[in-house]
Specification:
Helix content: 40-55%
Number of strands: 4
Pfam families: Thiamine_BP (PF01910)
Order of helices and strands: EHEEHEH
Strand order of the largest sheet: 2-3-1-4
CATH class: Alpha Beta
CATH topology: Alpha-Beta Plaits
Protein name: Thiamine-binding protein domain-containing protein
Distance between the termini: 29 Å
Strand content: 25-35%
Family: Belongs to the UPF0045 family.
Number of helices: 3
Radius of gyration: 15 Å
Length: 103
């Protein structure tokens, strides 16, 4: 299943802090639970789901700063779409943990 790493960057905010925008983005993700799985990290948000659903949710997330008065937004998207076997966020982490336990 595809996994996307997304960073939404509102440009032209009054303060260096963007936590209020991140919180609004998380609310959009909560509304899309069941459609995608997501995980907030200190630097970005990971979402997992069918590719068409990811693109739909990414568009919703990209719109959040605009809906809050920002006039310019930069969105970075990185997608890992492995099709030779099932891939999940948890599975990718477990594979690393398994390698660590072998040492």
């Amino acid at each position: 299943m595809p996994i996307a790493d997304i960073t939404i960057i509102p440009i032209g905010t009054e303060t260096p802090s963007v936590s209020s925008y991140v919180a609004e983005i998380q609310k959009v993700l909560q509304r899309n639970e069941g459609k995608v799985k997501y995980q907030l990290t200190p630097m970005s948000t990971l979402i997992e789901g069918e590719l068409s659903d990811l693109f739909d949710v990414i568009q919703q997330l990209h719109e959040v700063p605009f809906a809050n008065g920002i006039q310019r937004v930069a969105t970075n998207i990185r997608i890992d779409d492995r099709r030779d076997k099932k891939s999940t966020m948890e599975g990718k982490l477990q594979a690393v943990k398994d390698q660590l336990n072998r040492s």
